[in-house]
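Lecture notes, unit on binding sites. The following record was shown on slide 14. It pairs a sequence with 0PR.
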Amino acid sequence: MQSKGRSRKTVLSELRKIRERDLRYESGRILCSMCTAPHSAAKIAHQLFLCSNLGDPGLFLGSLRLEKEVTKKLAALLNGKNSVGFIVSGGTEANLLALLAARNMADVSSPEVVVPESAHFSFNKVCDLLKLKMVQASLDSSYRVDPVSVKKCINKNTVAVIGTAGTAELGAIDPINKLSELALDNGVYLHVDAAFGGLIIPFLKDIDRDVANFDFQLEGVKSITVDPHKMGMTTIPAGGILFRDDSFLEYIKTETPYLTEEFQYTFVGTRTGASVAATWAVFESLGVEGFRNTVKHCIALTKLLSSGLESHGFKLVSRPTLNIVAFRSSNSKLLAETLRRHGWFVSYVPRLDCIRIVVMPHLRKRHIMAFLEDLSKIAEEHNIHASF
Ligand code: 0PR
C-alpha cells in the first residue's frame, strides 16, 4: 500500500478503466454462465443495504425481515408449507448446510452420501470438508440418475441421497419422485440441488412443459438448494437453502455467545444483507408473471439455438429440458477454445466431450443469431465438422 492516499477521482477513474477488462453480460458474449445481469431494482436495493451484516442480525432487523420474507417466498414456490431457510453465499454453501444437517442427524461413524454422477462439483468439496464418503450413482440414457443404481448404493452407512433438479452440465432433472420413495423406504435424508432449476421449473408448467414434482410436495425431500443469484436475477452472493421445517436447524446451529442472536445457522459468519434486499426487490418487482415471462424468453431462445445448431448439422447431447444446450462436433474442445478466442465464451464439458451453452436472461435473439453465424464460419475455418 502506498504511504499517502490518492484522490477519490483518480481512484475511481482507474477502477473504471480496469473494469473495461471485465466482460459484460449485456454484450451477449457470455454463454457459459449461470449468473446474469442483475435486475435494475436489485442494483439499487443492493446499494441501499451495503452496510448490512446478517451475521449479527439483531443490529439489522430490517434486513432480517427481508431474509425471512424472501425465504418464505422461495418456500411457497417450492411447496414448503413449514419451510425455513437462509440466503447464503451460494449453492456450494447451501449444499454444505444440507449435508451437515443430514450427517449430524444420522450420527453414524462412517457416513456415506449417494451422489449422482452428474451432480455439481460442490459436492466433492462438501464431502471432503464433512468427511463423507461419496458414492456415485450412475445415469440413464437421458443423463438422469438411475434409481436402480441409487438403490444399490444405499447401505447402513448412507446418511443422504442427492438429486439434482437442473444439472449444471445439461439441465437434466433427476427423477426426484423415485428418489423420494427410496429415501422414505430406507429412512435416509433426501436433498435436492435445485440451485439452477429451482427458479425455472415452477414457471415451466405455465408454459407448455409438464415437469414432474421435485419439491417439498414429495415427503422424502428434506431440503432444497435454490439460488437467487442464478435465475433469480439478483446480485451475488445469494444462494438459498430451505429445510422442510425448523427441526433441521437444531443440527446445523452454532452458539454465538456475545452476538445479538444466540445462534448462527450459516457457515459464513459475517454476511451481507445487500443481496438479500436485492433479491427481495427482484421478487417484488417481477412477481410470478415477471418470472414466467423471463423463463418463457429463455426457453424460446433455447429452442432457437438448438434448432439453429441442428440445422447446421451439430448433434445435441440431449433434448434441452431447461435453458441449457449441449452439443458436439468433431473436435468440441478445439471449437470451444477457438470460439473463446473469437470472443464467444462457451464451456467445454470434458465429462461429456461437448460444448455447453446456458441461455440466461441477458441474451437476446440477435446474440443467438450472431453466435450461430460465427460458429459455422469458425468451424469451417478450423476444419471442425458438425456431423462426424
Ligand atoms: N449446484 C448446481 C446445480 C450448480 O449449477 C452450481 C453452480 C452449484 C450447485 C454451486 O453454486 P455456487 O457456484 O453458487 O456455489 N453452477 C454454475 C456452474 O458450475 C456456477 C457458475 C456460475 C459457473 C457462473 C460459471 C459462471 O460464470 O456452471
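Take-home: The chain has a mean pLDDT of 97.
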